[in-house]
């Protein structure tokens, strides 16, 4: 997935395409998905939902100012126009009262359902599948067709290592039973996640977002939110062939300035560190503007990405933590 990069290490500034040319049309899929608005985390109590949401929220809040959602009974947060909420299953009494009585309240407008299963708790597998079946029945009743993602959660590295003989078979068995329940009427995808390896959660979530939004939209939204968070006037991400990956401009003037200065900065950064394989950064102050230029390795392709952020000089420099958080999210999308 992502952008194809070559091994070439130099920037040919004449190849930078006009920024407008990179704007892509909204896809029909996106229009459809925008009319639905919920990402619902559900599954048995203790399966790890709150922990997953908490880690997502913490990562995302470093690049975006999250708006609290108001309408939902159980408010979690809103990201990219989606309300992300949690609903516990399990405990027959409570479940019957609160939930089966008013399915629409919890399930309507669900575009994504993430069903978490604690894979370490095999005693509750049957219960987990039984509630999963109930959830699917509710979706059918409501005549909605959300994308279903099953998180085989608590797939801790240590646990997988100690149980390598049995766990593979158990997960395959679970997959088969789940597929039988959805009976090809829903699109279901499986992920193994653990809070002990945060990237398992971040990359699963990014893949889910990529089903909801085209890549270009996701990248632009993400850099837009990051730019607003750090008070940037303009920000761009390029690959090593100067292909524009993501962009944000506060106004036309900012766009023109960053567009005109980018080739210069890239050449400067590369000529200073031609043969170094590490990340590089520089801060340039010029004409009341503050430019942060950085180069990061893109591991999957052994290529580079460049990040350029333009802000007012009066702003205090961006913290390393904020940069790292954005780069991490970028990595998980690309
Ligand atoms: N081993 C392990 N424990 C986890 C993981 N995620 C959550 N937990 C623990 O599982 C318990 C229940 O988590 P919680 O998020 O409250 O589950 P919820 O009831 O589904 O919201 C807590 O003690 C968490 O610390 C994980 O990936 N691995
Ligand atoms: Mg919870």
Any key phrases for this structure?
334 residues, alpha/beta, Beta-Lactamase, Rossmann fold, 2 domains, six-stranded mixed beta sheet, five-stranded antiparallel beta sheet, 24% strand, elongated, disordered N terminus, binds guanosine-5'-diphosphate, binds magnesium ion
What does this structure look like?
This protein has 334 residues and is an alpha/beta fold. It has 2 domains: 13-24 and 216-333, Dynein light chain 2a, cytoplasmic (Beta-Lactamase, 2-Layer Sandwich); 28-213, 3-Layer(aba) Sandwich (Rossmann fold). Helices cover 43% and strands 24% of the residues. Helix 2 (49-61) packs across helix 8 and helix 9 packs antiparallel against helix 11. The site of guanosine-5'-diphosphate (GDP) has 14 residues, from helix 2. Guanosine-5'-diphosphate (GDP) binds at residues 45-51, 88, 153-154, 156, 194-196.
Quick structural gist:
The chain is of the alpha/beta class and 334 residues long. The protein is 43% helix and 24% strand. It has a six-stranded mixed sheet with strand order 2-3-1-4-5-6, with helices on both faces. The protein has a five-stranded antiparallel sheet with strand order 8-7-11-10-9.
Secondary structure layout plus pairing:
Elements lengths: L27 H7 L3 E7 L4 H13 L15 E3 L2 E8 L2 H9 L2 H5 L2 E9 L6 H18 L4 E7 L3 H6 L1 H19 L5 E6 L4 H15 L2 H15 L4 E6 L4 E6 L2 H21 L7 E7 L2 E10 L4 E10 L7 H14 L1
Parallel strand pairs: 1-3, 1-4, 4-5, 5-6
Antiparallel strand pairs: 2-3, 7-8, 7-11, 9-10, 10-11
Helix pairs in contact: 2-8, 5-7, 9-11
The structure holds guanosine-5'-diphosphate and magnesium ion (MG).
